[in-house]
Write a structure and sequence with these properties.
The complex is a heterodimer. By secondary structure, chain A is mostly helical. Chain A has one domain: Glycosyltransferase (Alpha/alpha barrel). In chain A, 63% of the residues lie in helices and 4% in strands. Chain A is elongated, with a radius of gyration of 26 Å. Chain B has one domain. The longest helix of chain B is centred in the last third of the chain and has 58 residues. About 5% of the residues of chain B have low confidence. The chains are: A mainly alpha, B mainly alpha. At the A-B interface, helix 1, helix 4 and helix 16 of A face helix 2 and helix 3 of B.
């Protein structure tokens, strides 16, 4: 077979065309890779710009978020003064309202501990928010669950009422930082702490019920935290009950395989009623920090073993190995195995216990979905609403509250 | 005085012309962010103590989509386009000279 000159010319041009096409495609691919690299660098940078400042305790950020939450509390007070608030019937709305005021109080108290010069400004506001979380309309959802039995009017009883420990912890922290805390409210708080202490010591599982036949190790961690901080504020020795609780958490409430605490258990038998989960463990790690650093670190280690990172963003897995689910009111939606709550809650132990890399990854994800802005009085996560911002305020200022 | 300003503005507009869709995306995002900030404060989105407003929630989803586009798609596209422009000129010149050389070689072979 002989090649004619025309054929040679055609094959030469085809070769050149193929080479040019190949070069063009290679260049396009290189440009695309450059673009992907830019997105990979830009998105984590844009979302994580404030992470280091939060770790360093940047005053502008901390005071900015505090200012927004104080403004929210003032608006809430004005609204209450205008129209007498009705009891919040729905359990979850009630829990959210209580937690919003509680976390605001905790964040403000933590700022007082971190910056004693701010104590005069923030301590009275911490007291206000803490006392608000104890109001009858805030705890009404719990009274309804206990068939009309009010937690503060049944202190001699054996029912757990552990939901009110969130408010009790806020009051403990307010008492720790506010020397002008009202004496009458302090006496009522002392009685509540004494009731919790008695109930916890009587429990072989180290659990007391939140609602009838429902015990949550995370809520009991809040009970222990409230007792521990009460001891620091008043000088009362609670070592026995705290030791009892610590021992039971380690032996009965933590899943040995995953290191997560069980989300829900039987207070009497100690049988798990739900899976070991990240959201409960995250919040329990924060509360455990008020009582014992060792336990907080143990729970934090379990959390960060379940951390998943992608492109510089981090999130915490909700369910322990061998368990699956779509999430619930505690975790928020579970997508790709990670949950909103576990990710947000893990910010607290990450900051307090010095897991800086994890904090940065988790903060980027929080900022990606939280839409932080400085448009208002200070700093605010636009998609968080008051409860999300109150929670993040407490977690992003976590550290000074750690047990000595 | 106005002539150089007009010329600069025109040049700037010319430079931004290929990126006008991306600029629009960024502007829509910033405006949506501003609107959502005030809307979510008014309605207490996810507040718990008040009813979640469905409209605000949907607007939040729209804003999140825009945020993802601005954080991931925008830098990717800008860098891709700038890199393509930078390489296109050099590649075009290189391609023309290669093709010319190949045609010359083919013509020489034909003559021989």
């Amino acid at each position: 077979m002989r090649c004619t000159p025309v054929r040679t010319q055609k094959s030469g041009v085809a070769l050149v065309w193929m080479r040019a096409t190949y070069q063009r495609l290679t260049l396009r691919l290189l440009c695309l890779l450059l673009g992907l690299l830019a997105a990979r660098l830009f998105a984590p940078w844009a979302c994580g710009r404030d992470a280091q400042a939060w770790l360093d305790g940047d005053a502008a950020l901390q005071n900015g978020l505090a200012a927004e939450l104080i403004a929210f509390e003032a608006r809430d007070d004005a609204e209450r003064a205008r129209a007498r608030p009705a009891a919040i019937g729905d359990r979850f709305s009630g829990e959210w309202a209580l937690v919003t005021h509680q976390m605001t109080a905790l964040g403000l108290a933590q700022l007082c501990l971190a910056h004693p010069e701010l104590r005069a400004r923030y301590a009275p506001l911490a007291t206000q928010a803490a006392l608000k979380s104890m109001l009858p309309e805030m705890r009404d959802f719990g009274s309804r669950a206990w068939h009309g039995e009010d937690a503060l009017h049944s202190l001699a009883g054996s029912h757990g009422h552990a939901y009110l420990a969130y408010a009790a912890l806020a009051v403990s922290m307010a008492r720790l930082v506010d020397p002008a805390f009202p004496a009458q409210r302090a006496a009522s708080h002392d009685a509540l702490i004494a009731a919790y202490e008695r109930r916890l010591l009587a429990s072989d599982t180290g659990l007391i019920e939140t609602y009838p036949n429902e015990a949550y190790p995370t809520d009991v961690a809040a009970v222990a935290a409230a007792i521990a901080v009460h001891g620091r504020a008043t000088g009362v020795n609670h070592a026995r009950v705290l030791g009892h609780w610590l021992e039971r958490v380690r032996t009965r409430q933590i899943d040995a395989k995953s290191g997560f605490v069980f989300q829900r258990m039987s207070a009497t038998s100690g049988h798990p009623h739900d899976a070991p989960r990240g959201s409960g463990t995250g919040l329990a790690a924060y509360y455990a920090g008020f009582v014992d650093r060792g336990l907080a670190e143990q729970l934090a280690q379990a959390l960060f073993r379940h951390e998943m990172t992608f492109g510089g963003f981090g999130a915490i897995g909700e369910y322990a190995e061998g368990h699956v689910g779509l999430g619930d009111i505690d975790s928020g939606p579970v997508l790709f195995g990670v949950s909103v709550s576990a990710t947000g809650f893990a910010l607290a132990p990450a900051r307090a216990l010095g897991h800086h890399a994890s904090f940065e990854h988790l903060y980027r994800t929080t900022a990606l979905f939280g839409l932080p802005t400085t448009l208002g009085k200070g700093f605010w996560f636009s998609s968080g609403g008051p409860i999300g911002n109150a929670l993040l305020f407490a977690f992003l200022t976590s550290g000074p509250e750690l047990a000595p | 005085m106005t002539a150089p300003v007009t010329t600069s503005a025109r040049r700037l507009a010319q430079l931004a012309r290929p990126f006008r869709a991306l600029l629009l995306l960024w502007l829509v995002y910033e405006c949506s962010k501003l609107a959502f900030f005030y809307l979510s404060r008014r309605h207490g989105l996810l507040q718990g103590v008040s009813v979640v407003n469905l409209g605000t929630l949907l607007f939040g989803v729209w804003l999140l989509l825009l945020r993802f586009a601005v954080l991931f798609y925008l830098p990717l596209t800008v860098v891709y386009r700038v890199a393509r422009r930078a390489t296109a000129g050099a590649h075009g010149r290189h391609e023309a000279s290669t093709r010319g050389r190949a045609l010359d070689q083919a013509a020489r072979r034909r003559r021989s």
